[in-house]
Amino acid sequence: MNRLVTVAEMTLRELLRRRGVLLLLLLMPLTFYLIRRDSYLGQSVRSLLLGVGWAVSTAALFATTAARELEPRLRLAGYRPHHLYLGRMLGLWTVGLVISVPFFLLPWVDGADLRYEGLAAALLCAVGVAAPFGMLIGALLPRELEGTLLLLTVVTVQMLIDPAGSGARLTPFWSTREIATWSVDHTDGGYLARGVLHGIVVTALLALGVAAVASVRLRRRRHLRHLPVG
Amino acid sequence: MNSDDWLRALTAELHQRRVAADAARHVVAEAATHLREGGGDPWVVFGPPQQYAGAIVESIGTAPGPRPGPVRLHAQGITKRYGRQTVLRDATLTVRAGQIAAVVGANGCGKSTFLRICAGLISPDAGEVAVSGRLGYCPQSGGTADFLLPDEHFVLVGAGQGVARGPARRAGRAAARQLGWEAGGATQARHLSGGTRQKLNLTMSALSNPDVLLLDEPYQGFDQGTYLNFWDQLGRLRDAGTAIVVVTHLLNQLDRVDTVLDLTPAQQTGWHAPGVQGGRP
Amino acid sequence: MESDRRGQWLRGVLDICVLALLAERESYGYQLAQALDAAGVGPIQGGTLYPVLLRLQKIGLVTAQWREGTAGPARKYYRLTDDGHAALRQGGSAWLTFVRPVNDIVTKGVAR
């Protein structure tokens, strides 16, 4: 438990010290929101949520890439793989929740007529999905640049795809989109239920993916036998 | 350099040459007495500290090294290929507790690969490694977190062993001091100089009190003083029973190590070094 | 050149000189150096003398003991052992056997 918390704490500290990156990440959802502000509120809330998802997954990507060299050493120092990826995920979720707060308040200050419990649920889904999503991309792609480009592609697809189409359900942030519709357009509860379920399933699947990659990468190698000190 | 400095230098030289601690104390005390009674410049009366220490070693020899302990690391028949290129062929190394092994060889002969295989970071194509006890590994570079303070690195490594924050920080700072570095500052790792970051790297690898310590040319960016501190530190760890493997290309350090593994490939590729070609003129 | 040659001679015979001086009475490094100088052998530096003493101690020809002097710092006193006496007799007579003909030859040559 202590190991988990320590990794989470250090992830948090690292991210909070990347002030430039953090600022740019906060700027993105804000601009997304403001650009669409004049035309249609629903669109600007959706953009905002997408922006949060993007911001958190980019932070997750950076954190994962930065820890690539360090993790094998921590493994040798007595950490198990799950301490490392779960701890990191915990730290990222915390960061995500913290940066979600201003974006929850933004439409409220703006006087938007929303189901705010829906906005909260959508933010939770965005953050929940984004952390393991960014971590998985960071684990699979060796460099930050490639990861960032892939994230950008995913977010763009997410923005342009028809949410009612069958392919849309395969995109990671479909849940936030469904819940946002429920929140903005006051549609029936099916949107909320579908969205929450999708969010939970996708988060779980992505977390499993991260666990799988980490367990393989940080596995005990077969050629190495550990003997007790005799 | 006054007499005290000279005597200090002599002490260090004797220690480095592994003259038994007891005998070394007598030699230094006797020289001090002589200088006090007769005066004179120690550089004239006794000569340079290195030279005098050398003469002492010739007269009384060095301490028999502590008897090497049980085998801590045994790497057997390690072979590694990248594509069609074989970087390691059947490399074998045994290191006991209280020994330093040097892994040497030309650039690109697989020294780092060998060490990473021993650390279990990558898999070989053939061969086995048996390790007794805990492993510590210090990479050539990287392996630190850019945005964390040295203290936070110590806490992070310590938590892996269940060490509380306070003791972990203290242990880290104490180990850093052995390398002549005060690690308590508020400088993030990315702002440390290359040499200091390597000190952090090295401190981290030794912090978990490993039984087997694997060091991949950890001294890059060290100045002369730190470099000497580094070898002293290795000597202390060895005397405390750690089995140490250090990758190095500096052959002048080989007198301080107990075993050498030369990974330079045997000349079977048709290439011959100038001067050792086959045949007679 | 001259001091170089003297150094070479001394290297061969210093241990016998030290044994001979210690046969008279036990002594310490600085006193031995002074005695050798006073006898006319010339100044002996610590860097030359102590390694010889340590070697003699190591092979058991002398023993050593730290003692507080009446004034001044503690000194390491060396004393000849029985083996040391034997080594002195043997080495000393070998030296004398060697220098006698050398002296004869050199004396004749210089006188001519």
What does this structure look like?
The complex is a heterotrimer of chains A (230), B (281) and C (112). By secondary structure, chain A is mostly helical. Chain A has helices spanning 2-17, 19-35, 41-66, 70-76, 81-109, 116-140, 144-160, 174-185, 189-217; one strand spanning 224-227. In chain A, helix 2 runs antiparallel to helix 3 (41-66), helix 3 (41-66) runs antiparallel to helix 5 and helix 3 runs antiparallel to helix 8 (174-185). Chain A starts with a helix and ends with a strand. Chain B has 281 residues and is α/β, with parallel strands linked by helices. In chain B, helix 1 (3-16) crosses helix 4. The termini of chain B are far apart. In chain B, 40% of the residues lie in helices and 19% in strands. Chain C has helices spanning 2-24, 29-38, 46-58, 82-111; strands spanning 27-28, 62-68, 74-80. In chain C, strand 2 and strand 3 form a beta hairpin. In chain C, helix 1 (2-24) packs across helix 3 (46-58) and helix 1 crosses helix 4. Chains A and B meet through helix 1, helix 4 and strand 1 of A and strand 4, strand 5, helix 6 and helix 8 of B.
Give me a quick take on this structure.
The complex is a heterotrimer of chains A (230), B (281) and C (112). Chain B has 281 residues and is α/β, with parallel strands linked by helices.
